[in-house]
From TrEMBL:
<protein>
    <submittedName>
        <fullName>Carboxymuconolactone decarboxylase family protein</fullName>
    </submittedName>
</protein>
<dbReference type="Pfam" id="PF02627">
    <property type="entry name" value="CMD"/>
</dbReference>
<dbReference type="InterPro" id="IPR004675">
    <property type="entry name" value="AhpD_core"/>
</dbReference>
<dbReference type="InterPro" id="IPR029032">
    <property type="entry name" value="AhpD-like"/>
</dbReference>
<dbReference type="InterPro" id="IPR003779">
    <property type="entry name" value="CMD-like"/>
</dbReference>
<dbReference type="GO" id="GO:0051920">
    <property type="term" value="F:peroxiredoxin activity"/>
</dbReference>
<feature type="domain" description="Carboxymuconolactone decarboxylase-like">
    <location>
        <begin position="25"/>
        <end position="107"/>
    </location>
</feature>
Length: 121
């Protein structure tokens, strides 16, 4: 059994992405911008969003995702307990959300939110 060194892995991935940044610069720039927008503080803070990203990385078995999001969580001051609880949810779910399920979740949330409004609102 080999052990992954996530520091080395993230450095290697960053290096391996260089040809894509040159070959498809607009795609890679757009992906980077999307990532910054997705993680930016909003209704959820950046740490919570990174915990979610870590859980998805685990659920989809993406070592690179695990490395990059674990690194970000350290930078954001996540506690070991927060990470453990997040990983408990990832184990429970056993899979990752997809765009179709995310869209359905938004529709369901909007439906329930609308039904919770007082009559005449």
């Amino acid at each position: 059994m080999t052990t992954t060194c996530y520091s080395d892995l993230t450095k290697q991935i960053t290096s391996n992405l260089a040809p894509l940044r040159t070959g498809v610069p607009q795609v890679m720039k757009s992906f980077s911008e999307m990532g910054r927008a997705a993680i930016a503080d909003g209704a959820l803070d950046a740490k919570t969003k990174e915990l979610i990203a870590l859980a998805i990385g685990v659920a989809t078995r993406c070592d690179g995702c695990i490395g990059f999001h674990a690194k970000a969580l350290v930078r954001l001051g996540a506690t070991e307990a927060e990470v453990h609880e997040t990983l408990g949810v990832a184990v429970y779910m056993g899979g990752g959300p997809s765009a179709m399920y995310a869209a359905n979740a938004v529709a369901a949330f909007n439906e329930f939110a609308a039904s919770a409004l007082p009559a005449g609102s």
